[in-house]
Design a protein that fits this description.
Layout: H1 21-34, E1 43-44, H2 47-53, H3 58-70, E2 74-77, E3 81-84, H4 87-92, H5 94-100, H6 112-119, H7 146-158, H8 174-188, E4 197-200, H9 203-214, E5 220-225, H10 229-237, E6 241-248, E7 251-252, H11 254-260, E8 266-269, H12 283-296, E9 299-303, E10 328-333, E11 345-348, H13 351-362, H14 370-381, H15 384-410, E12 415-417, E13 425-430, H16 436-445, E14 451-452, E15 465-469, H17 475-499
Parallel strand pairs: 5-6, 5-8, 8-9, 9-10
Antiparallel strand pairs: 1-3, 2-3, 4-11, 6-7, 10-11, 12-13, 13-15, 14-15
Bound molecules: pyridoxal-5'-phosphate.
Length: 500
């Protein structure tokens, strides 16, 4: 032990009433050491004199000293006394460390993949989302049967068997998977067993697990253009090359895809209701698209996000129902049909992907909350999902009709709605001379949410248009919203003219 300097008395702050004596003494000495008020190697007064100085029981002082010795702040030398440790100060005091270390400091870095996520953010919408009218991301939350959901949830929680509290299968809560397999046979024409169904937190997580399992760095992925930007962002983030494939009146133009990039490993498509243009892929196109995938060894990711909610005619069966089971990965979500914060959805997998998905999930997120899955399962098997979906279809048809009516009445010469299949959102083509960014910005100033179509484009140019959400718009507010939109578009037209 090098030369030491004895302390005659300790200069410590007074104890607060709510702090125990031993805790106070320990904290004060430790802090003095870390802040270098007690220098390394310094000898502390004996436990007897500390107990006298601060009127503490000797055992309290011995206890605090022992703890500091155990943790390495103090060193005890038989026959010599107790000293401030030399090593602890060097390794724990950041000021001291910075002074003593002469090395070049190298900041820890994120991975290339991490950087990819940063470089491919989900589009920052021009609006700040405080705009509440025509929100694109919300279903009719005002019409969700909260009381019924609470009743179903309450019953499930009251009767929760202990096995519900245990970990479950990485592929999801088995009874829910069975209920889904049963439901998609009737509603989407998909014949599958519960073994092929995997519960996820929704489309985004489904895309994520599939992208990690089937794509390597540099693999090419077709995405409808314009298309679901969150899918394109994710594919880029995992290192894939995203190729925009145009959409025509029959859906994704896969032949154009072959011309620009024949070797796509995966194609992302929304055959039931193309997002955002609202086109239903024709039967002829489905057969040809599937044939392309089967003969080129490619995957199709079928995002069937709003099939349950289609209110104009009977929806075509899913593309997956035409597959012999090996190329189409089917995805659907409850977040749109029920409520956005539910975060539950599912995949129906080709058999070759079941084991890889189970292996990947076991070491990543495992599975969504089993209690939520069980509540959803009761909601489905109790017939409430079917009933709610029927109600929502009627409600959305009403909201859509009101939207079309008032746009026709108020926005003539400014905005023309697309004639494709009516759905939960609408694409409005702007009159020549109105810039979509200016229009979206002005609309946001009037409390109206909209997405410029360019934010959903990948490679191909489109005419200027705005995408609006209709599902969450209460009918009594639609007329008022459209009138406000008229003012926004008139301002946008003047701004666009001045900018030219
Ligand atoms: C094209 C498309 N797919 C999927 C979803 C649903 O995604 P998630 O289940 O992750 O909420 C949406 C939601 O807006 C969507 O627009």
């Amino acid at each position: 032990m090098p030369k030491t300097q004895p302390l005659l008395s300790l200069n410590l702050r007074a104890r607060e009433n709510n702090v125990g004596r031993k805790r106070w003494l320990y904290d004060e000495i430790r802090l003095a050491i870390v802040e270098r008020r007690f220098a390394p190697g310094m000898r502390l007064p004996s436990t007897r004199s500390v107990s006298e100085q601060f009127r503490l029981a000797r055992g309290t002082v011995v206890g605090a000293f022992d703890q500091l010795v155990t943790e390495g702040y103090l060193e005890s030398k038989v026959g010599l006394g107790t000293f401030v440790s030399r090593t602890i100060v060097e390794s724990r005091d950041p000021l001291n460390r910075a002074r003593s270390v002469r090395h070049k400091l190298i900041p820890a870095a994120i991975s290339k993949r991490g950087q990819n996520y940063l470089n491919n953010p989900f589009p920052q919408l021009w609006t700040d989302r405080s705009a509440t009218m025509f929100r694109l991301d919300l279903p009719a939350l005002d019409a969700f049967p909260v009381k019924l959901w609470n009743r179903v949830a309450g019953r499930r929680l009251r009767n929760a068997a202990p096995k519900l509290l245990k970990q479950d299968d990485a592929l999801g809560f088995r009874p829910l998977r069975e209920a889904i397999a049963h439901d998609v046979a009737a509603s989407r024409g998909i014949k599958c067993s519960a073994d092929e169904v995997v519960i996820t937190t929704g489309t985004q997580q489904s895309l994520n697990v599939i992208a990690h399992l089937v794509l390597d760095e540099g693999d090419k992925v077709w995405v409808e253009d314009p298309g679901y930007a969150a899918a394109a962002c994710l594919f880029r983030a995992v290192g894939a090359r995203v190729i925009g494939v145009p959409v025509d009146a029959e859906g994704i133009d896969w032949e154009a895809g072959v011309r620009s990039c024949p070797q796509a490993k995966l194609a992302y498509a929304t055959p039931g209701c193309q997002f955002p243009l609202g086109i239903t892929m024709s039967l002829r196109r489905r057969a040809a698209f599937l044939h392309w995938a089967q003969t080129s060894g490619s995957w199709i990711f079928e995002d069937d996000y709003d099939s349950q909610l289609q209110f104009s005619g009977r929806p075509l069966a899913a593309l997956k129902s035409m597959d012999d089971g090996s190329n189409v990965i089917y995805s659907n979500s409850f977040n749109k049909v029920l409520f956005s914060s539910l975060r539950l959805g599912f995949l129906i997998l080709p058999s070759v992907l079941i084991e890889p998905v189970a292996a990947a999930r076991a070491v990543t997120d495992r599975f969504p909350s089993v209690l939520n899955q069980a509540v959803l399962c009761d909601f489905v098997t109790g017939g409430h999902l079917a009933q709610h979906t029927r109600r929502m279809r009627e409600l959305y048809a009403e909201r859509h009709a009101a939207f079309v009516h008032f746009v026709g009445k108020e926005l003539d010469g400014l905005l023309t709605l697309s004639t494709s299949r009516p759905g939960l959102h609408a694409v409005g083509w702007l009159a020549p001379g109105i810039d979509e960014l200016a229009a979206s910005r002005e609309a946001a100033r009037d409390g109206i949410d909209s997405l410029p179509l360019s934010s959903l484009r990948i490679d191909h140019d489109n005419k200027h248009a705005l995408v609006f959400g209709i599902a969450a718009a209460e009918p009594r507010l639609i007329r008022q919203g459209i009138r406000r939109l008229k003012q926004s578009l008139l301002r946008a037209r003047s701004i666009s003219r001045r900018a030219r």
